[in-house]
Design brief:
- Strand 5 and strand 6 form a beta hairpin.
- The mean pLDDT is 89.
- The protein contains one helix and seven strands, in the order E-E-E-E-E-E-E-H.
- The longest helix has 21 residues.
- It is of the alpha+beta class and 93 residues long.
- The strands form two sheets. Strands 1-2-3-4 form a four-stranded antiparallel sheet, covered by helices on one side. It has a three-stranded antiparallel sheet with strand order 5-6-7, covered by helices on one side.
């Protein structure tokens, strides 16, 4: 397995990890619920708030993932990593 480019935690045992080709959203007590989204399917990433941020990930299928109460540096790192990987994916097409 490859290590993630960046990862961050949110409220309620939620973890978001950015890999080279996908974004994984893990939830549950031991991370047993995994939702993998291809980098190419991510349509938008938004940050709302300053102290307890909300990171919103939208995909092309209309699904809406919102991670509440993240630290601002973590949310910015996840957003930058997703945008950087989207840029690389569009370069290789």
């Amino acid at each position: 397995m490859e290590p993630p480019i960046t990862q961050a935690t949110a409220r309620g045992n939620n973890v978001v990890a950015v890999y080279a080709d996908r974004v994984e959203l893990r939830s549950g007590w031991q991370g047993q619920h995994v939702e993998a989204i291809s980098i190419r399917d991510v349509s938008a990433v938004r940050i709302r708030g300053v102290i307890n941020c909300a990171l919103t990930i939208l995909d092309n299928n209309g699904r809406h993932f919102e991670l509440q109460r993240m630290a601002l540096p973590d949310a910015r790192a996840v957003k930058a990593a997703i945008e950087r990987q989207k840029q690389k994916a569009s370069t290789y097409e």
